[in-house]
Structure formats: C-alpha cells, structure tokens
Task: inverse folding
C-alpha cells in the first residue's frame, strides 16, 4: 500500500465514522470507519518506512586522489576527496 492509499483509507474511514448518519441493518458504519482509519494509518506508516528505507540505500562512495607535485622547495602532496552518490 502506498502513502496515498493509506491517506485515502483514513479519509474514507473518517467519513464513514463521523459524517454518515444513515444506518444499514446489521452493519455498524462507525466500526467500519474506525477499522478503515486504523488500516489506513498502518498503510501510511508502512509506506513511509519503505520510502525512507529506499532513500537510505543511496550511499556516498568516497574516492581519494593523491597527487605529488615537484616544487622548487621540495615535494608537495595534494589530496582531493570526491564523493559520488551510488
């Protein structure tokens, strides 16, 4: 379930639980609304967790380049660090 699906279930559940005044014989719309809101909340949390998990897999790869330069005074070492996103 995606983030949008979880939000949609929460909205539908809230409408059923708090806004619908009709009654259906043998069906409690308030309870169905609460169940939809709980399922939407679980779906929303799972969708967010999966989204953050996917984004945390992008790691930085560090490459260090060492260059030696000859100067009039002596040798100089230049270090440069490059970071790439994998």
Result:
């Amino acid at each position: 379930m995606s983030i949008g699906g979880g939000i949609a279930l929460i909205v539908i559940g809230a409408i059923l639980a708090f806004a619908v005044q009709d009654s259906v014989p043998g069906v409690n719309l308030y309870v169905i609304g609460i169940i939809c809101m709980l399922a939407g909340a679980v779906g929303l949390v799972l969708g967010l967790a999966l989204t953050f998990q996917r984004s945390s897999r992008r790691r930085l790869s560090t490459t260090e380049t060492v260059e030696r330069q000859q100067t009039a005074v002596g040798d100089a070492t230049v270090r440069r660090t490059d970071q790439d996103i994998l």
The chain has one domain: 1-86. The CA atoms of residues 11 and 53 lie 26 Å apart.
